Please model this.
Amino acid sequence: MAVEIFNPNPTIFAPVKPAKSSKTDSLWVGDSSETRDDEELEAEELIDQDEIFDLIRSIYDPEHPNTLEELRVVSASQVTVTGNRVMVEFTPTVPHCGMSTLIGLSIRVRLLRALPSRFKIDITLKPGSHQSELAVNKQLNDKERVAAALENPVLVQTLEQSLANASLRGQSSEE
Amino acid sequence: MSSSSAPTESAERLVTTWMATGRDEEVAEAVTEVSEGRLLGVVKALGTYLTSDQDDLRTKGVDFLATVIGRCPENTLNKQSVKVLTAFFCDKLDDTETIVPALKGLSSLPPICTSNDALVILKAVFAHVNMRALVQSVRFHVFSIIDGLIAHHREPLKGMKSEFIAPYINLAEGEKDPRNLLLAFAIARVILVEFDPTDHIEALSNIVFCYFPITFRPPPNDPYGITADDLRLALRRCVSANPALGPIAIPIFLEKLAAGSPPIKRDTLQAMTDSFPVYGPALARTSARKLWNALKLEIFQPTDSATEEAALVTTQALVMTIHAGDAQDGDVQGFARDACEECIGILREPEKSQAKPAIKVLCAFMSTTPSVARYTLANAVPHLLKLFADPNEVPSRHPILLLLSDLIAAARDSSKARSDAEAPPDDPPEPALAPFKDEVLGALISGVGTPATTRAALAGLTGLVSTPHLLSDAEFGFVVLKVNEVLETCYQEDSSDDSNAILKLLMTISAISPSHVRDQTLPMLLKSLPATAPPRDAFAARGRYQHVLEALSTLCGPPLLFSTLVGELSPRLVALASAVPSESETDFELSAAYLHALLAALRRTLAGKVDDGHADVAGYADSLVPALYGLCVRAALRGGPALEPRVVGVAGEIIGLVVQSLASSRQQVFASALFPAFLEGKIAAICSGEDIPAEAGFLPFTPKFGGLMIESEATSAERNLLVLFEAGAIPLHPTVTIDADINAYTEKILMQALAHAENERQTEAASRILGSIVNKHVDELGPFLEHKRTAYWSVKIYEPAGYPGSRRQGLRTWIWMCKGLLVRNHPLALEFIHCLFDLFEDETIGTDAAKAFGDIAASDAVLTKRNSAVVKFLWAQKFATGILPRLMSGARDDSNPVLQHANLIALTALVKSIPNASYTHEMAQARALMPLLMRALQIPDAQIRANVIETLLSVAVEHKNTHDVLTEHAPALVRQMLGYTKARSELTSVRIRISALRYLGVLPGVVRYDVLHPCKPEVLRELAEALDDPKRSVRREAVDAREVWFKYNG
Model:
């Protein structure tokens, strides 16, 4: 391939330990079936930062066979939810990474598909992490330009490849 | 014999008839003629044809002779006739009209001819055959002749040297047909291996390497069934046949490896793996650099994992070829050294992505030659240890330990493979890792103590402890000690992330030397269990004891550990159960929950042991079982936390597991105490514990009949112990005698148990006992069942004036009797089941009767092989095939809405509980089931609706052949499912929403795009609403389903 590889040997991080299911407040061991009816009555479970991180953690990096989580491009602490507003910050592996826009776009497409339309989603680079930070941020949050990008069939195909395993949510595919 | 000189009548007749008809019968008769020694007769009869001036007659004549000779059994032809035939067929090769049948005739001669004849044949073939002028089936005869000659006359052919090889190469050149190639490759391999091909290597390589790599794809309906793999294998055996091919082969390999697609790469790599040992170390050494560069590319930038794997194997072969003859002094020069140093260089940055393939290469080196393995370890391990100790590399310690643990595992596996290959030596070899044992252990132990590196260190320790003969007993103890500390912090800080990995390690250790785990880990864990239940709001404490118990139940599988566990937990159980129930109601529930958790841990361990077939389980029949009966009975009589039905339930499960594992003679002893205990007040016989007085008057079924004088009714707590009766009774073997008069006794159980059952649990327990007895003793129960079928049914169940509760109870009993009979395919079963149809119009219990069909067909935990029930193979399928048509026609018949409704419910209940292989026939063939299921979706009952959706789901997932049925209904189904995904709609539940969303996610995979294309925008829009569902689990399914629809394109 004639495409330039921006970072041929990136650092791989261990995946964040999956959030523990803290069901320890139940008095009895192992009777989840009996509490099923109560579930209906329980309070609403709001969409939180962990849930949103779960949605994007297994997106593939366009350059490597690694997920955004493994490359520490995204992390749970870089997602904030306030009311109907979602802010996602991501960190490219190198400051001159030309794939940043594509990564940002794949995050946006995933969230567009997976979050209710009531949310306003802002996707930005981590401040100081990229040499053309402002340009990329502007491009990612411009509705028209995102829509135009999604009209390009080659780009959409690349995006679909990145999103192929996004539904794994941090689990490895063998399990 | 007089007839042999002149053509016989019959031979002439045969030949003339065949010439006219070409039938098979004449050939067969001629074969008989020849095998009876009359070859000459046949030849003479053919005479005029064989020499005829007419081309087609000549062809036919020779063809007839060739066919007959080909069919003759061996050793019917004598030497002289073979010689004559050889000369004759060779002569006919010259003639363009007869060359085809002549070759056919020759192809059957090699096994029976002499060496001289063989040479004659060979020379004639070389002289007259021009392969390019012949079609592939004839060329096949040529290859068969040569193959046969090589097989039977190899020595004379070898003697011909160039006179054989050169003309053969000329013959084989340009062959394309796969069937012929298989023969050609086999011949070429023999030439390359056994003949002296030195002068012809160039030419031979031409007829071998022009086919490499094979890209053949078999045509559909190939009559010979030759696959690409057959050809690949045959060609690979040629390529690796002779060392002289090496210099020619290596550039070709490199070229194909660089340019090929993944399958070609793999084929090339496998060919290389096979060839290197043959080509020899000298060539491998000179081309090592070039080869390694190519292989490195496949390993460090792999196209896929299979190719990467193949490249690693090839690298191993290369190393073994080069270094096989090395001195065993530990000093390695040349290729392995260079490659090893290169990989270690990459490992200087252990956190980078290239470190993974580098360690894979080093691990692959471990299973090559002992000296290379030693060299690799001696360089890689100290390097990693140095990195680990480097203060600048502290952030990378996790990846360093991961790499180290890969290496440890590789060292272990290679030494295992080696000791498996050789005979088990009395003196086990020293593990390769032994020289570095102390340093490695030190690094891992220090790593395990730091939270950031715990997980990687645990992986390494698991590798160490599972290496045979590596660690000493004291070192095992040390590892257990250190790991215990980590485990303890895990539980104290309530961060149990690593506890699973720790438990895995401890289990590995306990499989080798359980005493360390028993002496160190168990006391630590048991100590952290509280003596009494923590208060209601102490969530952390409760979570901790639950985790600790989980750990205990995971660890205590081995008999030694389990006996310790039982020994330690038993006094705690007794102490908890006998806590004075004077305090408030809450405290009572807390200790009951704790008691339940303790028992559940025992149950979990025991279930694992039963699955693994441990022999020590049966031994607990004399200790644990009476203790548990005693515990529960005492509580039922005097009160205490062990009253709680859930505690009784789990105690019952433990008893069941132990009784299952008893031999039937021991079961008999147990049974003879069990039945009187519950039916005649002799409860003390099965309880241990001093404080159950024999005259305690424990009678869960208050006897209304004569004999015993009991003033008070049994309490509800006492009756709840029916579950324990069930636990002991259900696993009993059919040969165990219950009572001399089993009919009366069973009636007694039924009447007493049911008459006073006051809740669901008690009714179920009694019904299950009954079902189990009916299943195992049906042949002795004639009068009992007859009574049930007539009087009991009409009075207790069918009578509409009866009390509804009691009728329902009767129905439950009925269901279990049906099940007991049905699983053993007893003829009475259907008679009993058909009674249920009479209830369909009943206002009060009609629906219950309909739902019963599901219960009857469902598999359960009672009537199983483990419980010694008589279970026939595929009973549920058989039942479903029989009953489905009736239910389906009933559900379609709209003359009586009540009946139709009941049939529909019965149908959905049945379909939900049987394996779906049993109704795919109905699904696909009659297309009748689908509309009915869709109608069932309209029934306003959340449970039925969820059942139907789940049924549809499992059909769609597992049976792809029902697609055209789905296609017909898919758009309607999609709309219906979309309706069910709404959280705010009437009559919904999490279960319905989740299964509807799953179904929506499956449909695009099984229905053609053009069918559902119109629904796509609607689905995407509606699912956007489900993305905002109040429940997280539903949202998750909605996201996945919507993703599937986004990708659904034509």
Summary: Confidence is low (pLDDT under 50) at residues 1-5, 703-712 of chain B. Residues 950-1046 of chain B form one domain. Chain B touches chain A at residues 349, 351-354, 356, 398-399, 455, 495-497, 536, 539-540, 542-543, 546, 549, 589-590, 593, 596-597, 600, 646, 989-991, 1024-1025, 1027-1028, 1030-1032, 1035, 1039-1040, 1042-1043, 1046-1047 (CB under 8 Å).
